[in-house]
Amino acid sequence: MRVTFALPEMTILSGGLRVVAQYARHLLDQGHDVSLVIRRPKHMPGPRRRLLGQLGLGRHAPPLSPDRGHFTGLDVPVHHLEETRPVRPRDVPDADVIVSTWWTTAEWAQRLPTSKGRHVHFIQDYEDFYPEHSQRVRAVYRQTNRKIVVAPWLREKLMAEFGRDSMVVMNGVDLDHFGAPARDCGTPPRIGFMHAHHPRKNGGMAIDVARRVHAVRPDIAFLVFGADPRPDDAPDFIRYERSPTQPRIAEIYRSCDLWLFVSLTEGFGLPLLEAMASRTPVLATPAGAAPDLIDGRNGRLSTFDPAEFARAAVDLLAMPAADWAQASQAAFATALGRRNDIAACEFEAILQDTLGG
């Protein structure tokens, strides 16, 4: 099977690109031919547009960096398309399937002839983020192609809003990277979470919860990481690490006894599985795939109320050692059931079924 992945970017270390890279590697390992086509969106965020203008590059895309991010070491052809003109069929290799991975790539992939592959739209979030692009995004979701989504809520959303069915492939997690041996709860325990300034990540609530927990249990340590500078409102008792390496991120997960997931919205929420693979129970808001992964044994779902969320965190870390060990094991069992190879095989099967159907 010849598979082309249509990407809006390659070097950003996002969770979405990590998933695509994992699937590309699996398909390559299974003997399929894989190609990558990169076409950055013409509608870039303001800061990047201004920077390109200052560099005199406003009309043309800069060349791809030698760094391939999550695709590093993946020995496949990479086609870099000019972003300032329409995509032509001769710009894209012939294939059996072309997988678009962002709404802008779905726009041009849908217009290609069948010789470029049957179009499968891989949707990792509801990408209607900016009002100026809303009509175009919604038009993409109305396309009559096969759609793969990463969580049940996305399938329900596409059916309710656009009458388009889709197939769910829940994301997988790399146990070789994030896995951990059985362990006891720390004394004193440690809470971890990711922080980002974007409003949907709800970082203000995370800081609020940390203050409330600290007021009741000042012995509990907090370890936080993120790509942004340390939050201005982060109290001194929070240890913050900016842009840790991938190995260090795995160490952070393993060093915590409870992981907080406070997002307002998420497509999936990879930290859920990454923490559980590290045998760390998770306390989460009902965002992304949290309602589908957290079952009360491997952690707990809470609300967006900081006071209630903080009480739940204190309760979880006050449980007897044997109960925490059971929760830790249940978290690992959940991750074991969503290993990368399981998710990748499900993804591969849908692509093959697309050709057969």
Characterize the structure shown.
The chain has 357 residues and is α/β, with parallel strands linked by helices. It folds into two domains: 2-172 and 340-356, Rossmann fold (3-Layer(aba) Sandwich), CATH 3.40.50.2000; 175-336, Glycogen Phosphorylase B (Rossmann fold, 3-Layer(aba) Sandwich). The protein has helices spanning 15-29, 46-54, 103-109, 134-141, 152-162, 175-178, 203-216, 246-255, 270-277, 290-293, 306-317, 321-336, 340-356, and strands at 2-7, 33-38, 78-80, 97-100, 118-123, 146-149, 167-168, 190-194, 221-226, 238-242, 258-261, 282-284, 299-301. The longest helix has 17 residues, at 340-356. 40% of the residues are buried.
Count, helices: 13
Structural class call reads: alpha/beta
* Poorly predicted ranges: 48-60
Q: Can you summarize the main beta sheet?
A: 7 strands, parallel
What coarse outline follows from CA principal-axis ratios?
A: elongated
Which CATH-level-2 architecture of the largest domain? Answer: 3-Layer(aba) Sandwich
Order of helices and strands: EHEHEEHEHEHEHEHEEHEHEHEHHH
Tell me roughly what share of residues is in helical segments: 25-40%
% residues in beta strands: 15-25%
Cα(first) to Cα(last) distance is 14 Å
Record keyword descriptors for this entry.
357 residues, alpha/beta, Rossmann fold, 2 domains, seven-stranded parallel beta sheet, six-stranded parallel beta sheet, 38% helix, elongated
